[in-house]
């Protein structure tokens, strides 16, 4: 069980909770901190101190004072009115991540909520109750108001959730899990929805998927090098050290180790002097992609342990401070940046696909067809890759450069961070299909060269992938192959990726 403190949640722990269904809990110290913070709110209410969103209206209504008898209704009205999300729902994994991140943020004890409320979030996680949350409707400042309102509705026993593989009413799921609906008290509705947990949850899932996808892309690119008899001199350690980008050197090192015992790669001058950029510049391009991933990781690691609601209650000083920690600009920038890395991973992969299928660029059968002319082989797979790459280019437009004023111009600058994160995740799905196509083509190419001559590492990847997609012996519906292989790349365990790498090479991955 992972104990939430709000201060030291790691990506590994998020991965264990979200993807491996590990339970979470709160320590006694966290309970005590939450209760002390709640006691401060109650004391300040008793003193009739004016506090935004606690005994005032919201947004443009911040100057409207609310009577004591209406404080609970104020919070419920907030949730009902702000639940304006539209579109298809986020996946269960993202919904689960949102629950985890919101519970962790509130656990720091600056939001003025009761321990009971955080326990409700924890109970949802442990029971596998995942709110149905429409993915569109957030501006990314005043936090992710619409998505988090839908999350809160489920805590109250309203609307729908995913539970035990079905989409059911929240009330039924609570009843089956033996839980009671939450009833909001002063400040608590605002504390639940004023935060960046939707964009951050999508960002965390995107980061975890992109990290795996980049490792897979390197491995698939290595197989393509074999299929095209690529020149290994371009991956020489000295060459990359003198440029100085760490990620570039690490990529080159991994490629060298993957292909260490290959009999299909060549040296400069042996067949040709230089390869095309899509082969020769794999370390430079992938290294830069890793830089976008590392930047996003740094900002997301900060945000998953951040307090992002408003106002915040500092018990020791008995201060209530209104500010803007809910503004998603750091995550908006991070997700727009990682989108560049995602786009370029697909771009360079599609160029390698072209080199694998174009008879003017290699000595392989045209379009890797078993019967060129009568059968088209991989011709249209390259079309699909090109289409996905082009779509990624439109999605890569930075969402963070846009802003539309809201709440009668009180909230006059917003981040659009959730849009940036959603686009990153969509681009990842496109890119995974592109590298699946590259893998199909690379496997076909190495079969022509001689599978027995492959490196042991790429040979194992070949054998695993061949269990998913058979060799092309005649034309068939390749859409099925692409989707099956993309699904395998997405869902098989990261441990399987590492098992493909022989023991003497695995340390290179773990070091980087």
Q: Can you walk through the features of this model?
A:
- The chain is mainly alpha-helical.
- It has two domains: 2-195, Fumarase C, Chain B, domain 1, CATH 1.10.275; 203-511, Fumarase/aspartase (Central domain) (Fumarase C, Chain A, domain 2, Up-down Bundle).
- Helices cover 56% and strands 6% of the residues.
- It is built from 20 helices and nine strands.
- A three-stranded antiparallel beta sheet has the order 4-6-7.
- It is elongated, with a radius of gyration of 26 Å.
- Pathway: Amino-acid degradation; L-histidine degradation into L-glutamate; N-formimidoyl-L-glutamate from L-histidine: step 1/3.
- It holds the Pfam family Lyase_aromatic.
- There is a cross-link at residues 141-143 (5-imidazolinone (Ala-Gly)).
Topology:
Elements: E1 2-4, H1 11-20, E2 24-26, H2 28-46, H3 71-82, E3 86-89, H4 92-106, H5 115-127, E4 129-131, E5 134-136, H6 145-155, E6 160-163, E7 166-169, H7 170-177, H8 188-193, H9 197-227, H10 237-241, H11 246-258, H12 277-280, H13 282-303, E8 312-314, E9 319-321, H14 329-357, H15 379-395, H16 417-449, H17 456-466, H18 478-491, H19 494-500, H20 503-511
Parallel strand pairs: 1-2
Antiparallel strand pairs: 3-5, 4-6, 6-7, 8-9
Rg calculated over all Cα atoms: 26 Å
Shape: elongated
CATH topological fold name of the largest domain: Fumarase C, Chain A, domain 2
Number of strands: 9
pLDDT below 50 for ≥5 consecutive residues: which ranges?
A: 493-506
Could you give me the name of the CATH homologous superfamily of the largest domain?
Fumarase/aspartase (Central domain)
The overall number of domains is: 2
Mean pLDDT: 93
Name of the top-level CATH class of the largest domain: Mainly Alpha
The largest beta-sheet arranges its strands as 4-6-7
- Give the ordered list of helices and strands: EHEHHEHHEEHEEHHHHHHHEEHHHHHHH
Given the structure, what is the number of helices?
A: 20
Major beta-sheet overview: 3 strands, antiparallel
Strand content of the residues, in percent?
5-15%
Distance between the termini: 28 Å
CATH architecture of the largest domain: Up-down Bundle
Structural class computed from helices and strand pairing: mainly alpha
> Fraction of residues in helices?
55-70%
Organism: Virgibacillus indicus
Cross-link (5-imidazolinone (Ala-Gly)): 141-143
Catalytic activity: L-histidine = trans-urocanate + NH4(+)
Family: Belongs to the PAL/histidase family.
């Amino acid at each position: 069980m992972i104990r939430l403190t709000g201060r030291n949640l790691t990506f590994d722990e998020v991965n264990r909770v979200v993807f491996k269904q590990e339970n979470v809990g709160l320590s006694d110290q966290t309970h005590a901190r939450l209760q002390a913070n709640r006691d401060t709110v109650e004391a300040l209410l008793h003193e009739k101190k004016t506090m935004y969103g606690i005994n005032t209206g919201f947004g443009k209504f911040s100057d409207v004072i609310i009577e004591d008898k209406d404080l609970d209704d104020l919070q419920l009205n907030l949730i009902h009115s702000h639940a304006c999300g539209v579109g298809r729902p986020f996946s269960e994994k993202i919904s689960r991540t949102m629950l985890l991140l919101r519970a962790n943020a509130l656990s720091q004890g600056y939001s003025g909520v009761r321990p009971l409320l955080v326990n409700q979030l924890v109970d949802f996680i442990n029971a596998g109750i995942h709110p149905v949350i429409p993915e569109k409707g957030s501006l990314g400042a005043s936090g992710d108001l619409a998505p988090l309102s839908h999350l809160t509705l489920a805590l109250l026993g309203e609307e729908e959730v995913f539970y035990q593989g079905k989409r059911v009413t929240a009330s039924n799921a609570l009843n089956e899990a033996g839980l009671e609906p939450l009833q909001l008290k002063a400040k608590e509705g605002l504390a639940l929805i004023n935060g960046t947990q939707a964009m951050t949850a999508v960002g965390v899932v995107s980061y975890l998927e992109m990290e795996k996808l980049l490792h897979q892309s390197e491995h698939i690119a290595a197989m393509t090098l074999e299929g095209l008899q690529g020149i290994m001199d371009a991956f020489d350690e000295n060459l990359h050290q003198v440029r100085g980008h760490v990620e570039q050197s690490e990529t080159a090192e991994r490629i060298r180790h993957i292909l260490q015992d290959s009999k299909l790669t060549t040296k400069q001058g042996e067949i040709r002097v230089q390869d095309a950029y899509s082969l020769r510049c794999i370390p430079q391009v992938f290294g830069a992609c890793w830089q976008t991933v590392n930047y996003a990781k740094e900002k997301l690691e900060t945000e998953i342990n951040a307090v992002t609601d408003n106002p915040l209650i500092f018990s020791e000083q008995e201060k209530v401070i209104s500010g803007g920690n809910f503004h998603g600009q750091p995550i908006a920038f991070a997700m727009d940046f990682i989108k560049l890395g995602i786009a370029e991973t697909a771009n360079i992969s599609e160029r390698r696909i072209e080199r694998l299928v174009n008879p003017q660029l290699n000595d392989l059968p045209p379009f890797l067809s078993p019967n060129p002319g009568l059968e088209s082989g991989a011709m249209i797979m390259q079309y699909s890759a090109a289409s996905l790459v082009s779509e990624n280019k439109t999605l890569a437009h930075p969402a963070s450069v846009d802003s539309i004023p809201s709440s009668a111009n009180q909230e006059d600058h917003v981040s659009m961070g959730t849009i940036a994160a959603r686009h990153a995740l969509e681009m990842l799905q496109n890119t995974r299909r592109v590298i699946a196509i590259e893998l199909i083509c690379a496997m076909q190419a190495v079969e022509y060269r001689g599978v027995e001559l492959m490196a042991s590492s790429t040979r194992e990847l070949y054998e695993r992938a061949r269990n998913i997609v058979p060799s092309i012996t005649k034309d068939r519906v390749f859409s099925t192959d692409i989707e099956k292989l993309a699904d395998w790349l997405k869902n098989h365990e990261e441990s399987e990726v590492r098992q493909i790498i022989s023991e003497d090479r695995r340390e290179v991955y773990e070091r980087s």
